[in-house]
């Protein structure tokens, strides 16, 4: 499974670690991903998704059905 959010598409970002002497070395800023079971009321079952914490907060506001439709995810296969 790729390290990206299934609903928002958030993924890792390239960045620099900067030391006290201002030496810069490359590093990755990973997205804060969580494996989450979400209740899908229309399907009357749990759906297991890998979501960023931002997506979990947005999911509580918008709802699973509308976010999955915007992301192009078929919830029957999850």
From TrEMBL:
<dbReference type="Pfam" id="PF00830">
    <property type="entry name" value="Ribosomal_L28"/>
</dbReference>
<comment type="similarity">
    <text>Belongs to the bacterial ribosomal protein bL28 family.</text>
</comment>
<dbReference type="InterPro" id="IPR034704">
    <property type="entry name" value="Ribosomal_bL28/bL31-like_sf"/>
</dbReference>
<dbReference type="GO" id="GO:0005840">
    <property type="term" value="C:ribosome"/>
</dbReference>
<keyword id="KW-0689">Ribosomal protein</keyword>
<dbReference type="InterPro" id="IPR037147">
    <property type="entry name" value="Ribosomal_bL28_sf"/>
</dbReference>
<dbReference type="InterPro" id="IPR001383">
    <property type="entry name" value="Ribosomal_bL28_bact-type"/>
</dbReference>
<keyword id="KW-0687">Ribonucleoprotein</keyword>
<dbReference type="InterPro" id="IPR026569">
    <property type="entry name" value="Ribosomal_bL28"/>
</dbReference>
<dbReference type="GO" id="GO:0003735">
    <property type="term" value="F:structural constituent of ribosome"/>
</dbReference>
<dbReference type="GO" id="GO:1990904">
    <property type="term" value="C:ribonucleoprotein complex"/>
</dbReference>
<dbReference type="GO" id="GO:0006412">
    <property type="term" value="P:translation"/>
</dbReference>
<protein>
    <recommendedName>
        <fullName>Large ribosomal subunit protein bL28</fullName>
    </recommendedName>
</protein>
